[in-house]
Amino acid sequence: MGEEVIISNKQVILKHYVSGYPKESDMELKNSTIKLNIPQGSNVVILKNLYLSCDPYMRGRMKKTEGSYIDSFTPGSPITGIGVAKVLESGDSNFQKGNLVWGMTGWEEYSIVTPTDQNYLFKINDKDVPLSYYTGILGMPGMTAYVGFFEICSPKKGETVFVSAASGAVGQLVGQFAKMLGCYVVGSVGSKEKVDLLKSKFGFDEAFNYKEEHDLDVALKRYFPDGIDIYFENVGGKMLDAVLLNMKLHGRIAASGMISQYNLEQTEGVHNLFYLISKRIRMEGFIIFDYFHLYSKYLEMIIPKIKAGNVVYIEDVVEGLENAPTALVGLFSGRNIGKQVVMVSRE
């Protein structure tokens, strides 16, 4: 297959399993090398990584877990996550050299992947939108917002919708989807700047900074005097407890994430679960990997809206693989505004 080509490959390595809040020092940047030749008969794909996605679920992979829906990272190896990449060489007939793809890749300049169900790769056909969008609105977070809101919550026009972590990669879209449907939407976020963003950019009816509220139950009653029909759950803990007090009869909760709990050694209890019974609330957790069969349907809905300017998507892009650990750790203190992306290469 031609002469062997070996090039240098910067990588972000997880040094050890993490307890408590992750720190930049839990990861290190390492120089390695990679062979850009595909062995005869192999079905691997060699990728040049362009954008990497920082997502809250990655925190769970930094500790040793058994029986999770996704494997733990391996200490001493590069961490992995969703990215946008260019195919340099392909032994898989579904991908050709030069294709742009998004899916699971390594936190490194170049990756060798074997496309499987668990290690999915999607070909990028629509290039009239920013490529980084495939880590967000056109990728896993976009699908998460779409599935959680439309499939799990069965929303109807005029219903009341509450979204936590509402300026994040998923929350900002849930709010906009709810507004398109004619719902009343309120979001909670962690700063005044983010409150302003929800109302001015994303069209939320109301928003509040949960850090300034002494009593979340009182805050929710202020915005939802008649109760909440739909809660899109991204944070868990005290917020979930307060929401349960304020749900309407036959309310629906889509549990997408619980970021307030990810770094606690002892997770907080939820005390108001009896309201699931008395109010006949349906709460359903979901993992987006189970819904990728709806991806093409989602793209048909969302791409025209992006091109028409009917959907806004805000990204927080940092440049350079060396800044990836800082970007990832920043998710857990809410440092990012919008979807956190790392640009590894411009192509």
Automatic annotation (TrEMBL):
Alphabetically ordered keywords of this record: Oxidoreductase
Superkingdom per UniProt: Eukaryota
Chain ranges of the Enoyl reductase (ER) domain: 45-342
The keyword Iron appears for this protein: no
SUPFAM superfamilies: GroES-like, NAD(P)-binding Rossmann-fold domains
Signal peptide per UniProt: none
InterPro entries: ADH-like_C, ADH_N_2, ER, GroES-like_sf, MDR_fam, NAD(P)-bd_dom_sf
MF-aspect GO terms: 2-alkenal reductase [NAD(P)H] activity
Keyword Oxidoreductase found: yes
PANTHER family listed in its UniProt record: OXIDOREDUCTASE N-TERMINAL DOMAIN-CONTAINING PROTEIN, PROSTAGLANDIN REDUCTASE
Protein name (record): Enoyl reductase (ER) domain-containing protein
Top-level taxonomy: Eukaryota, Viridiplantae, Streptophyta, Embryophyta, Tracheophyta
